[in-house]
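cache lookup: miss for this entity combination. No prior model stored, computing from scratch. Input as submitted by user K.M.:
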Amino acid sequence: MIKVAINGYGTIGKRVADAVRAQPDMEVLGVAKTRPNFEAETAIDKGFPLYAAIEEREDQFAAAGLDIAGPVAELVADADIVVDATPSGIGAENKSLYEEYDTPALYQGGEDAELVDTSFNARSNFEDAVDADHVRVVSCNTTGLSRVIAPLRETFGVEKVRATLVRRGGDPGQTSRGPINDVLPDPVTIPSHHGPDVETIFDDLDIDTLGMKVPATLMHMHSLNVTLEEAVDAAEVRDLFGDESRLFLIPERMSIDGSGKLKEYALDAGRPRGDIWENAVWEESISTVGRDLYLFQGIHQESDVVPENVDAIRAVTGSADAEESIRTTNEALGIGF
Amino acid sequence: MIKVAINGYGTIGKRVADAVRAQPDMEVLGVAKTRPNFEAETAIDKGFPLYAAIEEREDQFAAAGLDIAGPVAELVADADIVVDATPSGIGAENKSLYEEYDTPALYQGGEDAELVDTSFNARSNFEDAVDADHVRVVSCNTTGLSRVIAPLRETFGVEKVRATLVRRGGDPGQTSRGPINDVLPDPVTIPSHHGPDVETIFDDLDIDTLGMKVPATLMHMHSLNVTLEEAVDAAEVRDLFGDESRLFLIPERMSIDGSGKLKEYALDAGRPRGDIWENAVWEESISTVGRDLYLFQGIHQESDVVPENVDAIRAVTGSADAEESIRTTNEALGIGF
Amino acid sequence: MIKVAINGYGTIGKRVADAVRAQPDMEVLGVAKTRPNFEAETAIDKGFPLYAAIEEREDQFAAAGLDIAGPVAELVADADIVVDATPSGIGAENKSLYEEYDTPALYQGGEDAELVDTSFNARSNFEDAVDADHVRVVSCNTTGLSRVIAPLRETFGVEKVRATLVRRGGDPGQTSRGPINDVLPDPVTIPSHHGPDVETIFDDLDIDTLGMKVPATLMHMHSLNVTLEEAVDAAEVRDLFGDESRLFLIPERMSIDGSGKLKEYALDAGRPRGDIWENAVWEESISTVGRDLYLFQGIHQESDVVPENVDAIRAVTGSADAEESIRTTNEALGIGF
Amino acid sequence: MIKVAINGYGTIGKRVADAVRAQPDMEVLGVAKTRPNFEAETAIDKGFPLYAAIEEREDQFAAAGLDIAGPVAELVADADIVVDATPSGIGAENKSLYEEYDTPALYQGGEDAELVDTSFNARSNFEDAVDADHVRVVSCNTTGLSRVIAPLRETFGVEKVRATLVRRGGDPGQTSRGPINDVLPDPVTIPSHHGPDVETIFDDLDIDTLGMKVPATLMHMHSLNVTLEEAVDAAEVRDLFGDESRLFLIPERMSIDGSGKLKEYALDAGRPRGDIWENAVWEESISTVGRDLYLFQGIHQESDVVPENVDAIRAVTGSADAEESIRTTNEALGIGF
Ligand SMILES: NC(=O)c1ccc[n+]([C@@H]2O[C@H](COP(=O)([O-])OP(=O)(O)OC[C@H]3O[C@@H](n4cnc5c(N)ncnc54)[C@H](O)[C@@H]3O)[C@@H](O)[C@H]2O)c1
Ligand SMILES: NC(=O)c1ccc[n+]([C@@H]2O[C@H](COP(=O)([O-])OP(=O)(O)OC[C@H]3O[C@@H](n4cnc5c(N)ncnc54)[C@H](O)[C@@H]3O)[C@@H](O)[C@H]2O)c1
Ligand SMILES: NC(=O)c1ccc[n+]([C@@H]2O[C@H](COP(=O)([O-])OP(=O)(O)OC[C@H]3O[C@@H](n4cnc5c(N)ncnc54)[C@H](O)[C@@H]3O)[C@@H](O)[C@H]2O)c1
Ligand SMILES: NC(=O)c1ccc[n+]([C@@H]2O[C@H](COP(=O)([O-])OP(=O)(O)OC[C@H]3O[C@@H](n4cnc5c(N)ncnc54)[C@H](O)[C@@H]3O)[C@@H](O)[C@H]2O)c1
């Protein structure tokens, strides 16, 4: 059993913890948090040993009636690997701690690519992370883009990618984030930083991205254009994508018009937290005009990186190859509707 | 086993179906829908026999690859009771069908009180529905108000209730509903119809309600004022409410500031669909100024009436008394965080 | 003086009425509405003779204390031209009325291109409408796209246009429109109908468009990619656009991050209704990567077609050429910040 | 002419500047800002001398091509009165500056009541501010409540006020403020601080307030209950309010269902920035049940305090009594639809 520590038990961390626990070859050694709140209570209820990420705050947990298993350093010391899921920038601050205990670490997309040995997407570059010490699981948007680009490159060749990323303003619980009634070019400058981030996965890719922020919380929506190296029928692309385990092609007959009904479907289907680990590609939207492929995909920012973290654990610990890891992760989580 | 038919498999109907299936003394005989969509697929996936609510549309289901068990009349004929969860006003049209087959029926809050023998809230007037043929489970808002008013009346006496109901504009999947950026007095006239609806449960209650509609989808929010018959300490009210199984007092330590984090907590806790069957009362908000009691409560419109439907089934079929039914329902669903 | 009738006094019609009145060579003969509301009152307050679009409803206006000048047919008969600004599809129904009285007519973007002799954008194809009888001023989105495409075609040549149109769900007063918390691919099929609509202005243009709908009311936002026929510096494009009277380049120093601050700026500047008749292009966003040009532009759906209607009046009545008309319109309205 | 300095030229400050300029007995000596943005440009365009609120930042203005008239201290020294419209808490920091130059000052609702000699609402306690040195114009919500409470107290007597304030999450340009999809009890504790704030105007008033925050930007909405000292017909209240110059009773015939259409009406009517200086009370909503009065009112947070600031200038400078000041202000601004 791979002993996994989770440092940062928020939106991403709590999902990674549940996903790790569901794997046949892993166990959650403990999770670390900075302050008591409803998530800390759920950690305890689920039986995850809870560590204090900031030692001086241990008494805050005590005051809330929550037992602390110890300081985070202890957790890091005992783990085979640590998944850092702290807010952007904190992961970088934590790196020295992981180095101190010689514990390999995964970081999330909020950290800089320079921090790590390699960036990671299971479908695209699993091998790069094998035996690496510091690996960054790329952001939700980059993960979503990589999953469609990889098969297109392999099968048809990709000349250029142009993507408009219409991003949710905040996650459902982030009540202090806006905008309330606006559409923000974000960043205003073009191309946005998302393209270069995708290039950490495919270093020779030609990609330009544009970002926006809108008053919605459920999912990001990508408007994607890929100029392929050959003219292709839309049907061929649908078939290609139909074989990809982490792409869900929303069938027209389901009458799912956006992220609201999509999440409702996931909840009805019994998905934990209504999570949609797959890219949700509207099947009807997949279209080609000559060599130009277009599509819409919804990216569930809170969960699409979760199976990627699980796979990255196997890559870093050298415990399975890409195919085996992806298959195990998918089965354990129940990926595929 | 009580054989239950569900006519109308949408927001309410699909939840009632799952809740009925979870009961030790009930089974879902089948569910009826008017058209194929993602919900119809989930019904099939869950193994609920699917009936065509409109016979002429059977082929639409066939075209979508969904097997139809038969026409809804057959389902009604075979059932011990039918739960009608069709859109407002359709229930009234369906009544003659239920009468034709002598099948007692439950209706939802979108129907008029005049349609039925009695309106129903398990905590408040379970006995009124015993052996009745046509019973209306009151709306989400009325259910939410009844659950707090009942214990207050019994313990302290209620002189007057004044409530402002800040209602979500639409459910998460209802993408055609607004407003997008507005606060609507709705209805503009005061008092709103909600007060009289509560009086179908407590006929001698003095209550004035005001309604608004806002651009939010997760929950309704009630700003409640109850003038009690005696001055009471807030602590006494908290204790009283603490004993009510369908009131969840949100503890301050959880740092839950609104319906977003509340739903997240429910999802983290593993609630199906993140449902919050209980009134969610902010514990800190419970305050008294002389005889005036104030509080905020979140009402999860999609699910608070679900346990009430289950109890109403037992009342109508005479299979348990209030206390036993509520206890059984609560245990089967896992009510209480 | 050109005598102008306005049929349909809503979002577009009331703005066209004010704009026509501001012209030195035009007068508003009257405006027609179907029912009394706040807009009817303002029409009266502004001294626009008010006609009943539906004769049987005249008494509704009387009941509201609003004097009706006569039936709409009278207004059409006496006018030199009628601007139809009724809801989508109603314009087509009204066409026979205008033909009956031999009054040339303008229609709005909600009508089909087949209804008319030509579609119209002042910057791009003014001449096509000269002396035509039935002319359609293209939609807000098509107007916005045409204004940037025209100069690019003339100066650099355009190989292909790809645009993602992130559309506001409803206008600020349209409280029944959603979505509340969603991003909807709309239409789900790609390319959307917007591209062909732009081709009614530039018939040989290669353009693919993708549409979305978001919970915002203020403006549409375009994420635009134009593959030019030659590689061009962004600075050249900025210069080119700087010379276009109906493109407003938002300077970086203004710290305008979206449509909220943009509208606030327009309101501060004293614009009537805060209208932004120009395309609002974020200057910083104008970028080139080889032959690919990218930019973000905000399109104020309620007002960008207003100066176009004014110009179309001059085209149809043959009273000025493009340059003179555009200059007169711009001066009369105060276009250009 | 009263020489008025405006320190803080944002949402409130820029409106006060325009309003002061519109008065026959006042002039704007200058306005001070901390950083250049679109508002600074408009100040220059309008011909308001622009002062640097923070001396070290003068060169930022220069870099943006904006001429600075001098440091704010100079402006304060030369003025008869300064209106401080800086963000909450900054006013308190500025007090010593105003004292240093012996310039009387007005502060806004974001400051504490303790900072000043008296809090101010023109309709309710104009006299208290006569010749005072430091006066706080109460917040938008308190202003809105005071304007309805004052006439009710005088005419019928008020036993108790209970109000639920459903507050907009942010102003239209405040894109970083949320929530996006939530209804937040805010503050969670009851009664909220708004009641005590109203008591700075009516010290013997019995009032309990509850606050919420919703994803809307246009206006606050109050759900108001006033228990009067006698039973009154709703018609009497409507008549009473009809005589109040700063209450606008929205007539039913206008079909205005919320703040979106209300703002549209104000914009159509030519109001600068679409401002609604009056409380907007839905006439139909005014209802009585025994001694209980209920109503809904929309409060335009950005502008209702503007005429109050103008009146407070006259009170502090002793240049007119309440009746004369209010009349002059109303006429100069065009208050009353
Ligand atoms: N939320 C998303 O949509 C999303 C998607 C993909 C990637 N990411 C990335 O994942 C990372 C985590 O984001 P999140 O959304 O889960 O954040 P979050 O705020 O929901 O959770 C962060 C958690 O870390 C804890 N924390 C804060 N400081 C800490 C410290 N010093 N040590 C240990 N724990 C600490 C917090 O208490 C919280 O529990 C970021 O890099 C983010 O960019 C987020
Ligand atoms: N959604 C809520 O928040 C909520 C809360 C409490 C009560 N209610 C009440 O519950 C009832 C159902 O509301 P809902 O939100 O579940 O609606 P819904 O639209 O989500 O579901 C209604 C279902 O009924 C089906 N249907 C439509 N016509 C039918 C017919 N003639 N025969 C059979 N099925 C038909 C539809 O296909 C759909 O599956 C209404 O009375 C409503 O007022 C709704
Ligand atoms: N609102 C926008 O964003 C926008 C932008 C560009 C173009 N358009 C197009 O402009 C047209 C008008 O749209 P709008 O937004 O102004 O609509 P609107 O609903 O705001 O106004 C339409 C007006 O027409 C009146 N009307 C309805 N039926 C009528 C009839 N039979 N005869 C006369 N008047 C009638 C209504 O009372 C209303 O005053 C549509 O074709 C629309 O597609 C709208
Ligand atoms: N916006 C509202 O809805 C509203 C309503 C009523 C009362 N108020 C109150 O009015 C006051 C101002 O609020 P606002 O919404 O206008 O804020 P704002 O942020 O829109 O404007 C504040 C202005 O003050 C400037 N400023 C910041 N620091 C300064 C300093 N040290 N010296 C001089 N200027 C400085 C800023 O540049 C800005 O121009 C606050 O007390 C607020 O509580 C606001």
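stored under new cache key. The interface with chain A takes residues 162, 164, 166, 168, 179, 181-186, 188-191, 208, 210, 212, 214-221, 223, 225, 252, 257-260, 282, 284-285, 287, 289, 292, 294-296, 298 of chain C (CB under 8 Å).
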